[in-house]
Specification:
The complex is a heterodimer. The longest helix of chain A has 11 residues. Chain A is about 35% helix and about 25% strand. The N and C termini of chain A lie far apart (about 30 Å). In chain A, strands 3-4-5 form a 3-stranded mixed beta sheet. Chain A has a two-stranded antiparallel ribbon with strand order 1-2. Chain A has 4 helices and 5 strands, in the order αββαβαββα. By secondary structure, chain A is of the alpha+beta class. Chain B is of the alpha/beta class. In chain B, the strands form 9 sheets. Chain B has a 5-stranded parallel beta sheet with strand order 10-9-8-11-22, with helices on both faces. In chain B, strands 13-20-14-15-16 form a 5-stranded parallel beta sheet. In chain B, helix 3 links the parallel strand 4 and strand 5. In chain B, helix 6 packs antiparallel against helix 7, helix 6 packs across helix 10 and helix 6 packs across helix 20. Chain B is globular, with a radius of gyration of 32 Å. In chain B, about 45% of the residues are buried. Classes of the chains: A alpha+beta, B alpha/beta. At the A-B interface, helix 1, helix 2, helix 3 and helix 4 of A face helix 1, helix 2, helix 3, helix 4 and helix 19 of B.
C-alpha cells in the first residue's frame, strides 16, 4: 500500500480512531530480521501528530518538522481522522503559492 | 534473494547545487520525482526530497546546498535487497544511491548508475512475503492504560465483541453475565447467534491448525446465552445520558438503523425512526424466513430499543411520503439506512408474467405469514440463483407447499455461493439442484401463465471466480448453443441480486453502482445527512450492518455533540484475575437441527443446546485475552519456561549468551538486569502469542514463581438488567 500510494508512513485506523502509524522503517527492519509476519497493529508507533481541519498549513509544517514525521493526521476535535497531510502535500502547496 | 539491480532506477534529472532551494522545490514538484539528486562538479553530492523541502516553507532563497541531505548513502547494485533495506533503515532515508564496480580487480573504481527508492523495495518485499499466521494478540486496549490484549476473535469481529469474556462466563455457568457482555455492542444476539457469518470463528486460535481442533463455536454460544436470558424474561435497562434537546431521524429499521437508534438514545438524542414496512426490523424481520430463527426473540430485542424512547413511525416511506429535504429541515441530523430490500428480476423474455417474482418480494410477503398470489401449492417452482437468498426462497417454497422445487445456478455445485450447511438442509427436504446453466426465457402456456423456464448450458471449463470473494466473474460465462432445455414449472423466483429501492430525486449522492455515497463513518457530501449499511456497501452481512450503525451514531454525535471524549464509554474493571481453567479438549459440535421430516413447516430448525453442550463448547476457548505477567525483580532468566513450553512460544534471551530464539516472538514480557550473585546477567523474555495457548505450563515450572497470568474484565456501567414487565412482555409478543 505504501508503494502504491508513494508514502512512507501510513496511519493505522481502527474504528475511526487512529492508533498511530506504521513507518516504512519498521517494515524494512522487520524484513531484514525475517519478522514480517506481523500485523500493522504490532508495529504501530504512537502518537502521530494531529491538526484540526481549520488550522493553517504552517501549523502542519511546524508539526512535520518538529516531529520528524512524514505525515500529520487531520482530525476533528474528538479525534476522528478526516485525512492526512504529507510533506509532499505542503511542498506542493508552497510551490504552487 | 533478489539483488538491488532488480529495483534499480535511473538517476533522471539532477539539480545544480548553487541554485536556490525555492527553484529546487519548484522542479521537485513539477518533475513528480520523489527526490532530486544534487550535482556539484559532475558528481552527486546530496539529496533534496520532500522532507528537506519542509525547511524551504518559510524561506527558500538560499542555495539548495544548505538544505540538502548529505552524504547520500550508497550500495552496490549487486548487493542484496536486504542490504538496501538495512541501509535505508539505519540511515533513515527513503533513497539510496546505487554504484557499480568497474576496472580491473586491483584498480577498481565505482561509478553511480542510479538510485533505489524505498517504494520499490517495499513493493518487492510485498511480492515475496507470504502473510502467514499473524501475531494478532497483545495489541489493543493500550488506550485504557492496561495490559489487556485484544484476542484474535475480538479483532476480527466487525463490532469488536468481548468474545473471550462472554465465552468464559458461559463456561462458568454465568449465562446472564454472558448475555450482558454480548449486549454491550450487539443489539441483536438472537439473530447473530444463529445467522452471523462469524469472522471471529475464522480467526479463532483454536482453529488455526486444521483438523479436529476446529474453532470454538462462538456463534452458538452467543445464541445459548441469549436463549437463557429470553427464557428468564429479562431485559436491559440502559442508563441514558440526559436529553440534549437534539433530534435525529433514522430512516430504515434494519440492523444498522436500530443500532444507531439505540446508540443515539444512549447519548441523549431524540430519535424518530421511519420504517416503510408495517413492522420494525428491516431485512431481519422481512427477508429472513421464520424457520431460521425465533422471531419472538427479535421482537424482544427490538422492543428493548424502542423502550429507550425511540419514536416509531411505521408505513412511512421516506422519499415518497416524506422528502429527505424535509427531514433535513426538521432534524439536526438524518441517517439513511434503507438497505437493499428490492430483488432484481433479470430482463429475459417472459419475466413480466404474473407467476414471476423476486426472492426478496417472495420472502417479504411470506414474512407476514401470507402466501403470495399465484403461488402453486402442489405445483413445481424454479428458483433462479445460487446464493443464500435463493436457498431461503427455495426452502420457503418447499415449506409453503410446493411439490417440487428446483434451484438453478450458473456456478457448478461445488462453487455455489450459498452456505454449505443451508444447502445440505435444503436438499434434505427435497430441493433439486441444477447447475451450470443460465436462464434463457420464461415460457408461458396458451393462457399466459408460466409453464416452464428455459435454460441454456454454459461452458463450465471457462468459468472463472474472483480469488478473493469467490464470486463468479460474469464475463467468463459462455453459452453453449444447442443445449437449450426447459424445466416445467408454474412459478419462477429470481434470486439474482438486490437493488436499493429509494427515490433518486432526493438529492442523496449516489455512486455509479447506484448505491449511496458515504465514507465508512456514514458521512455523505450533504451536510447533516448520513448513510450506512447495505445501501452504501451493497448486500453484506448482518454484523456489518450493526457495525455501520455504531459508526454512524458516533459520527452523528461527533457532528452534534459538544465535546466528545475519545473513550466515551464508561467501563469499570470488575475482575482482575489469575483464575485458570484448562482449555479442555473436546471436539467442536454444531447445534443439532430438526430431523428432515419435521422441517416441512416454518418452525425454527436449529435446536438449542443444553447446559452441558454449551459449557463443553465454552471450555474449548484458549482465553486469548489472558497475558503473561513476569516479576522482573525475581526472574533469573534461567530459561525453564522456554524449555518446558510445549508450543515453543517463549524465547529467553540473555545478552552475551547464545540461546535458541526460534519462537519468532517479539512481545517483550520481561526485561531485567540481574545482580552480581547471578554474574550480572541481563536479558529479556519474548513471547510469540501466535503460538501461546495459555496452557500455563511455564507458570507451573518457574523455579522462582515469577510468572503469573492475568486477564481483566470490564462492565459497561450504562447497563442494568431488570425483569421484563408484564406490559413489556405483551408488547414484545405482539410486536411494535
Amino acid at each position: 500500500m505504501m508503494a502504491q500510494n508513494r508514502v512512507t508512513e501510513l496511519p493505522v485506523i481502527v474504528d475511526q480512531r487512529c492508533l498511530g502509524y506504521v513507518s516504512y522503517l519498521d517494515i524494512l527492519q522487520r524484513y531484514v530480521r525475517g519478522l514480517l509476519a506481523a500485523r500493522a497493529a504490532d508495529i504501530v508507533r504512537t502518537p502521530l501528530p494531529e491538526v484540526r481541519p481549520d488550522a493553517p498549513v504552517s501549523e502542519a509544517v511546524r508539526l512535520l518538522r518538529e516531529s520528524g514525521r512524514q505525515l500529520v493526521l487531520v482530525t476533528t476535535s474528538a479525534g476522528m481522522p478526516v485525512g492526512a497531510i504529507t510533506a509532499r502535500d505542503v511542498s506542493r502547496a508552497r510551490a504552487a503559492a | 534473494m533478489p539483488s538491488l539491480s532488480k529495483v534499480l532506477q535511473p538517476i533522471g534529472q539532477t539539480f545544480p547545487s548553487d541554485r536556490t532551494a525555492a527553484e529546487a522545490l519548484a522542479q521537485l514538484t513539477t518533475s513528480g520525482a520523489e527526490a532530486l539528486l544534487i550535482e556539484k562538479d559532475g558528481s552527486i553530492v546530496g539529496l533534496f526530497g520532500y522532507r528537506e523541502a519542509l525547511a524551504v516553507y518559510a524561506d527558500g532563497s538560499g542555495p539548495v546546498e544548505q538544505y540538502m541531505r548529505r552524504p547520500l548513502p550508497g550500495r552496490n547494485v549487486a548487493d542484496s535487497l536486504e542490504s538496501g533495506a538495512d541501509i535505508m533503515y539505519r540511515e533513515d532515508t527513503p533513497v539510496v544511491l546505487m554504484t557499480e564496480d568497474e576496472g580491473p580487480l586491483f584498480r577498481k573504481t565505482s561509478r553511480t548508475v542510479g538510485i533505489v527508492s524505498a517504494y520499490e523495495v517495499l513493493e518487492e518485499i510485498g511480492k515475496t512475503t507470504a502473510d502467514t499466521a499473524s501475531n494478532k494478540v497483545f495489541a489493543g486496549r493500550k488506550d485504557l492504560g492496561l495490559n489487556v490484549p485484544v484476542s484474535p476473535c475480538q479483532r476480527a469481529c466487525p463490532i469488536h465483541q468481548d468474545i473471550a469474556a462472554y465465552v468464559d462466563y458461559v463456561s462458568q455457568g454465568r449465562y446472564l453475565d454472558s448475555w450482558l457482555v454480548i449486549h454491550e455492542t450487539n443489539p441483536f444476539p438472537s439473530m447473530l447467534g444463529r445467522l452471523c457469518n462469524h469472522p471471529c470463528e475464522t480467526d479463532c486460535k483454536r482453529g488455526w491448525v486444521q483438523g479436529p481442533e476446529n474453532a470454538v463455536s462462538i456463534k452458538s454460544l452467543k445464541r445459548f446465552a441469549t436463549d437463557y436470558a429470553w427464557a428468564r424474561r429479562v431485559k436491559i435497562d440502559w442508563q441514558r445520558a440526559p436529553e440534549n434537546g437534539k433530534r435525529v431521524a433514522v430512516v430504515g429499521s434494519g440492523p444498522a438503523g436500530m443500532t444507531a437508534a439505540q446508540d443515539l438514545r444512549l447519548m441523549g438524542y431524540g430519535v424518530d425512526l421511519y420504517e416503510r414496512e408495517a413492522k420494525l426490523g428491516g431485512l431481519l424481520s422481512a427477508s429472513i424466513p421464520h424457520f431460521r430463527f425465533d422471531h419472538d426473540q427479535l421482537l424482544w430485542e427490538i422492543q428493548m430499543i424502542v423502550d429507550m424512547g425511540v419514536n416509531v413511525f411505521l408505513n412511512k416511506n421516506v422519499g415518497k411520503d416524506i422528502k429527505v429535504e424535509q427531514l433535513l429541515t426538521d432534524y439536526d441530523a438524518v441517517f439513511l439506512s434503507v438497505g437493499m430490500m428490492t430483488g432484481r428480476i433479470l430482463p429475459v423474455p417472459g419475466s413480466d408474467l404474473p407467476e414471476v417474482i423476486s426472492a426478496m418480494e417472495f420472502l417479504r410477503v411470506r414474512s407476514y405469514d401470507i402466501t403470495p398470489d399465484n403461488f402453486p401449492r402442489g405445483g413445481d417452482v424454479v428458483v433462479i440463483g445460487g446464493g443464500a437468498v435463493a436457498t431461503d426462497a427455495a426452502q420457503t417454497s418447499i415449506k409453503s407447499g410446493a411439490r417440487k422445487v428446483w434451484m438453478v445456478s450458473i456456478e457448478p455445485a461445488d462453487r455455489l455461493p450459498a452456505f454449505g450447511n443451508e444447502l445440505v438442509e435444503a436438499r434434505e427436504i427435497g430441493l433439486t439442484l441444477h447447475t451450470g446453466v443460465i436462464v434463457n426465457a420464461i415460457k408461458a402456456d396458451a393462457s399466459g401463465h408460466v409453464s416452464g423456464v428455459e435454460f441454456i448450458r454454459v461452458d463450465e471449463t471457462r468459468l472463472e471466480f474472483d480469488p478473493e470473494s469467490g464470486k463468479l466473474l460474469i464475463n467468463t460465462v459462455q453459452k453453449l448453443p444447442g443445449t437449450e432445455h426447459v424445466i416445467p414449472c408454474r412459478y419462477a423466483i429470481f434470486a439474482s441480486g438486490q437493488i436499493m429501492d429509494f427515490a433518486q430525486d432526493q438529492g442523496v449522492p449516489l455512486t455509479p453502482r447506484k448505491l449511496m455515497e458515504a465514507d465508512t463513518g456514514g458521512h455523505t457530501k450533504v451536510a447533516k445527512l448520513f448513510a450506512g449499511g447495505d445501501c452504501v456497501q451493497g448486500p453484506s452481512f448482518i454484523v456489518d450492518a450493526v457495525a455501520w450503525g455504531h459508526r454512524t451514531a458516533r459520527s452523528i454525535n461527533e457532528l452534534l455533540g459538544a465535546a466528545v471524549p475519545r473513550d466515551a464509554k464508561p467501563l469499570t474493571i470488575i475482575e482482575t484475575t489469575d483464575d485458570h481453567r484448562e482449555a479442555d479438549y473436546y471436539l467442536r459440535q454444531e447445534p443439532p437441527i430438526l430431523p428432515a421430516e419435521k422441517r416441512m413447516d416454518m418452525t425454527p430448525v436449529e435446536l438449542p443446546w443444553n447446559d452441558e453442550q454449551a459449557i463443553t463448547a465454552a471450555l474449548r476457548c484458549f482465553q486469548c485475552d489472558t497475558v503473561h505477567h513476569v516479576d522482573e525483580s525475581t526472574c533469573i532468566l534461567c530459561g525453564a519456561c522456554d524449555d518446558v513450553c510445549p508450543e515453543k512460544a517463549l524465547d529467553v534471551v540473555v545478552y552475551g549468551e547464545s540461546r535458541d530464539t526460534s519462537s519468532g516472538g517479539f512481545v517483550e514480557i520481561c526485561n531485567t538486569v540481574l545482580g552480581e550473585e547471578f554474574g550480572g546477567k541481563a536479558g529479556k523474555i519474548l513471547v510469540n502469542y501466535d503460538r501461546c495457548t495459555n496452557c500455563r505450563i511455564c507458570e507451573d515450572h518457574c523455579p522462582v514463581n515469577c510468572i503469573t497470568f492475568q486477564r481483566v474484565r470490564f462492565r459497561d456501567d450504562a447497563m442494568q438488567m431488570i425483569p421484563l414487565t408484564p406490559v413489556a412482555r405483551v408488547a414484545a409478543k405482539a410486536g411494535v
